[in-house]
Amino acid sequence: MPEQNKSKIALWWRNLNVKHSLGLSLILLVLTTVLYFALQPNLFKSGTVSHLLTSNFRTWLPVILVTVGQAIVILGGGLDLSNGAIVSVGNVILALTVTTVDEPGKNILMVLVVIAFGIAAGFLNGFFTAYLGLQPVIITFASSFVYSGLALLLLPSPGGNIPREYTTFYRSTQFLGIPLALIVIVLIALIWTFFRRRKYGQFLFAVGGNDKAAYTTGVPVTWVKISTYVISGFLASLAAISYTLLTGSGLSSSGDDMTLASVTGAVLGGISMSGGAGSVLGAIFGGIVLGNIRNIISTLKLNSWWRTLVNALLIVLVLAGPGLINLLRRKKK
Amino acid sequence: MNDTNIQNKKRFTISPPVTALIIALVLFLLSGLLPNGFNDWASALRQAMNILRLASFIAIIGAGQTLVIISGGEGIDLSAGSLVSVGALITYILINGNNNLILPVLLLVLLTGAFVGLLNGLGIMHLKISPFVMTLGMSGVVQGTVILLTKGYYDGKVAPIMTQIIARDLVPGIPGMIFVWIIIGILMTLLLERTRYGKELFAIGVNRVTARLSGVRVTRMVVLTYVIAGALAAFAGFLLVGYTQNAGPNLGNQYLFPSIIAVAIGGTQMSGGKGSYFGTIAGAIVIQLITSLLTTMQLPQALQQIIFGSLLLGILVVYGRDKSLRA
Amino acid sequence: MKSIVLCTENIEKRFGGVIALKDGSIEIRPGEVLALVGSNGSGKSTLTKVITGVLSSDGGTITYHDKPVSYSNPMAAQRAGIMAVYQELSLIPSLTVAQNIWLANEPKTRFGSIDSKTMNAETAKLLTLFEGTFQPSLHPEAYVRDLPLDERQIVEILKAYSRKPEVLILDEATASLDSKQVNCLFDLIQLLKSEDKGLVFVSHRMDEIFRIADRAVILRNGKTVGEVLIADSNEDEIVHLMVGSNVGLTRELGGRMTFSAQESVLIVEDLENEQLNGVSFNIKQGELVGIGGLRGQGQSSLLHTLFGNSHYTGKITLFDETLSFDHPKEAIEHGVALIPGDRATEGLLLLRSIFENFHLPNWAKYCRPLLKMKSAHSDAEEMGKQLNLIMESLDAPVSSLSGGNAQKVVIGKWLLREPKLLLLDDPTKGVDVGTKSEFYKLLVKLQENGTTILFYSSDEQELLDLCERVLVMQDGKVKADLSGDNLTEANLVFHSMGATNNNNHHEESTHA
After folding, report:
1. I want to staple C52 with a disulfide (CB 3.0 to 4.6 A). Which of A31, B184, C84, C198 is the partner?
2. CB distance from A17 to chain C under 8 Å?
3. Chain B contact partners (≥3 CB pairs within 8 A)
């Protein structure tokens, strides 16, 4: 019977929305993807789609990674305004040190240094906010200046040259026809699914939902909160690596725009800014939607003078979205 | 007075603004010891005036910031930097060397700043967007609008009267800007200490529930504060261009973070409810001295950012002991 | 007599200068239900919170399994097997019922991930304990945020039960449950009793105490004043122990006045919102009317609604004008003042000076447009003197004052406006005796000057001493309107507790 079918779909949809807050971000994902492809002139030529996928995912990967990190911090009830600056530091370190393929040992070491920096910076954020109990927004804002200052100190003017072999590796590595960037994204999603089903996932949502209640129930609230900043720092360092491989060079302000983009991506992915509700899968979708929208804007061949304004307006509108919806709902009542 | 035991037995405490001024003095004397520092009274005075003049811009951009931070609720205005640029650009382009246009252009500058502030305030109070995120986003919108409108090309000239008042010495040895600063300082202090707006501003910064239950219209107050802060930032741009004689779309950005640190150094609590404009003035002088010291010691600009960032973290940890900042 | 699983001796707890508990002594025995009884502020909740590690004690000993213990946080107590169900729920709204029940105690699969299937199945099993008493919307995978209060309370109870406690404390756990749900809870308690667990039952409902408890310990003013075997006792005896020798005390300050001839200045009809279920009453010019009842029955909400601080449906007529305030400012302009219940979070600006706190609602008076500081200062000085405020100076931060003096500032800021209708939300909570008596005199003086006063207090004695009329509230309704000879402590307590036994207190006092 069609009725029963309908209710099954309705139930699935409801579940998707209530359990994972994924409904809206899924609609946006489909809509923007369809629109994006519809705007491609050579869509039906062979190879176009796969080429687009490959080039897009490798461009989006850094933002998707920081968005996932931001989402985890927000899920735990915080906010990380320093993730962009961590990306900058990582990018600068790599650009300065990875100059030749002849020293693979040193290169790997530097990658590890970047990751260690991300984790340490994240831990510092977590220590100040969760352990000392200070406001996350202003603390991460202040620490972002320390980190971006460090990036500027290391590399005052753009430069650095990553060996072509490495950028080619990032650009063209495929596994079973799936581009490297997409594999990383899928891996992140899998790791998330793994942890989501363990104690850690449960604790994260409990702390973001109501930290006092979680504390009285026996959840190690401080450690969970610190861990979210550490994860965000770690993912920011991965974003730095992929960004460096993407551009092949260093720029001390490379991560500046990523901070707001990560918040925007998280909101697009259905993560509630007040914490405790949402899904990392949504954040990934949100990051992709953001990339799609930016691509659509650029295929519209807007006059380049418009670009900054349109991007900024987009961000403000997305941030205003949940509030606007609430306002309208209340008016209706 | 029937209570005789109410004597002035004030405990010996130094307020943050006074501490900041003492630090400023020490830093200033230290800078004199540097190889290319001052070696006589005249050059010391000249140096001091120069520092004060540069500090005045930080402090005036910090004026609106002081109000917003006092208003509490994690209040901050990260759009102030781009508003300074906008104020400067509007002035530069529209006045174009014509003294008669000063007043109408000034009005337009103030209205532009107020309008952006209004959007900030409405977004924060009605759409419940975190002030950091909202004002950071608006900063991008403002910058984007500037790029769109100027298309990268702008030309103009500051009015001669402005140059006369702001950039030159009004009294021999004392730049006119210092007088402008003193007037703004007096007005800001009156606004905070001697008006109903100021008293209610402190109230909403400390405790919005108490304020509401005492008849303060909290939403209206917050929105109004962002409007004033926007107008003040744009006005700072108007003054700044009078000094630099040249505008650019990124003119104001370098002042944003220094102005926030200046407010924090001056003892204004980042969580709101406590602070003074006098403190911001003292903080601005300290910030300018640190900047000048680093410059004379030929240390890179980046170090300044790291120092300022660590300074803010340190202040937050020290003042953070106060319960009201804790979650 | 059975052995003792946990006992407390002479527990003391002070909050600042206020003594909440002087001598809390109870013995919990396995397989027995101990009822903890006492009126508002007698120290019941404080005592239970000390036992479960939520509060630290200032004196006395706790012995658990024959060893002295003291828990610094609730987790430690839980690990030792002491669990409590509080009124303020410890649930996380954004998680499901099953996730809440098993939080930090999750069953795991062989692979170390959370075994949702087992978790949901176990939860479903637990829910059968309350079968038939809740909506089908309550199931293991339902989100707690979507549940009504009573169902949340059930989840809270099951959460504690699932952790297999040795000692289970139920603090007002029945307050939001209906009678069927209470029956299920009692079955559960019987089950735990048969497993030789120690149970503490804190309730204001007398009938429940007689149904489920084996013994009762009565607390009065922070002291254990008696212990009775329920089988050998009756409601009267317990009420007498609760109120002590105060029964029959009448108003000391001024004589009770009659207001029948006066005109009503405040008429409230069918006030409803989330906390109020149709409140109607009227108050005459110059009357001092008390609001009584157990804590949290809508008293604060009523005062806040009258003050324009919450939305409502219904009709409020004040001084012959039908009102629809949507901000306290409008109420203030109509001569209404509210002295809120929580000084620190609702009444004061702790970082600011005494002077600024006094004038927060009054600055408009001094606008020229710069504020006339001298005249504001002398007015504040005057008010400080009038209230006998002990302070270093007007410019000292209000946080430097003691509790009683700080409360004077909250009162003073409204007296400066000379309000026509004064609303008080439990204003003497945590105030020392001296300040209290000053405060009583002040209220009487205000009343003599024609101020109409509506006064909620959780201290029954205070209502009896001061008011000529008391409205007793329960479940967001005015349950009884006591005045004249009906206004006795026994009556007040009886109506507050919703006591059901058919004695004459009840009959006499209910006004039609």
Report:
1. C84
2. no
3. A, C
Q: C6-246: CATH homologous superfamily?
A: P-loop containing nucleotide triphosphate hydrolases (3.40.50.300)
- Walk across the sheet containing C469-474 and list its strands: C336-339, C421-425, C452-456, C288-292, C469-474, C477-483
Contact at CB, C94 and A276, closer than 8 angstroms: yes
The contacts of residue C232 (CB under 8 Å, 6+ apart) are: none
Distance CA(C37)–CA(C202), nearest Å, equals 7
A21 dihedral zone (left: phi>0; alpha: psi -120 to 50; beta):
left
CA distance A187 to A181: 10
Q: Please list every residue in chain A whose beta carbon sits closer than 8 Å to the beta carbon of residue B327.
A: 133, 135
Distance from first CA to last CA of chain A, Å, rounded? 35
| Residue B283 near residue B261, CB atoms below 8 Å | yes
Q: Which of C307, C328, C351 is facing B273, going by the closest CB pair?
A: C351
- Cβ–Cβ gap C360/B324 under 8 Å: no
CA proximity to C347, closest of C409, C391, C296: C409
Please report whether residue A302 resides in a domain.
Answer: no
Q: Which 3 state secondary structure label does DSSP give B284?
A: helix
ipTM, 2 dp: 0.86
Q: Which two tokens stand for residue B119?
A: 């959007």
- Give the pLDDT band (50/70/90) at residue A87: very high
- Containing C134, the helix (H) or strand (E) segment is none
pLDDT score, position C260: 54
Domain boundaries, chain B: 55-254+270-275
Domain C250-335+419-512 has CATH 3.40.50.300: yes
Question: Do residues C184 and C157 touch, judged by C-beta distance below 8 A?
Answer: no
Inside any domain, residue A25: no
Fill in the DSSP letter of residue C338: E
pTM here is 0.86
Which residues are C33's β-sheet partners? C199
Chain C residues whose beta carbon lies within 8 Å of the beta carbon of residue B273: 349, 351-352
Per-residue pLDDT band for C439 (boundaries 50, 70, 90) equals confident
Domain that holds residue A186: 58-259
Place of tokens 């609720």: B73
Contact across the interface for B126 and A148, Cβ inside 8 Å: no
CB B238 within 8 A of CB B86: no
* Strand partners for A209: none
What is the DSSP secondary-structure string of B207-264? -HHHHHHTT--HHHHHHHHHHHHHHHHHHHHHHHHHHHS---TTTTHHHHHHHHHHHH
Coil, strand or helix: which one is C471? Answer: strand
In a domain, A238, yes or no: yes
Q: Each residue of C197-251: pLDDT tens digit?
A: 999 998 877 888 899 999 999 988 888 988 999 989 888 888 888 877 544 334 4
Region class of A92: left (phi > 0), else alpha (psi between -120 and 50), else beta: alpha
Task: Write phi, then psi, for C277 (nearest 5 degrees).
Answer: -115, 55
Beta strand extents in chain A (DSSP E only): 174-175, 178-179
CB contact under 8 A, A218 and C143: no
Assign residue A51 a region: left if phi > 0, alpha if psi is -120 to 50, beta otherwise? alpha
- The two three-digit tokens of residue A165, written as one number: 């072999």
Give the C-alpha separation, C282 to C269, whole Å: 8
**Per-domain residue ranges of chain C:** 6-246, 250-335+419-512, 349-418
Q: Does C335 touch chain B (CB under 8 A)?
A: no
Q: Tell me how far apart the alpha carbons of residues C453 and C46 are, in angstroms, rounded to a whole number.
A: 31
Partner C contacted by B45 (CB < 8 A): no
Amino acid symbol at C32: E
Listed in order, strand segments (DSSP E) in C253-302 are: 264-272, 277-284, 288-292
C54 interface with B at CB cutoff 8 Å: no
Collect all residues of chain A within an 8 Å Cβ-Cβ radius of residue C85.
none
